[in-house]
Design brief:
113 residues, alpha+beta, Arc Repressor Mutant, subunit A, three-stranded antiparallel beta sheet, 3 strands, WH_DNA-bd_sf, Transcriptional regulator, HTH_ArsR_DNA-bd_dom, WH-like_DNA-bd_sf, DNA-binding transcription factor activity
Length: 113
Amino acid sequence: MRRDVFQAIADPTRREIINMIAQHPLNVNAVAENFEVSRTAIYKHIKMLTECGLVVITQFGRERYCEARLERLAEVADWVEQYRKVWTERLDNLENFLDDLETKKRKPGRKKG
């Protein structure tokens, strides 16, 4: 099964792992200690993050350290950006419409005689 960055960030635990190791690399045990799920579950999350290219595992002696590779998140940012542009345009159009409506309300109407 092909993994992608969207699958990686779909889970809140994986997002939290990314947040934790974005600051500095942590060993796998230090990551696991921050969650109330089994180490095995955390290892599975880390494995998926690795398969998606968001985490690299480096071995130092007996310790395995997780290091974030956040470049792949640009794919998500690009995808979101297209929708940001659409919604910004829609909200701008709504604002213009409401401004026009307010302007028409303020103008005194002509009396029919």
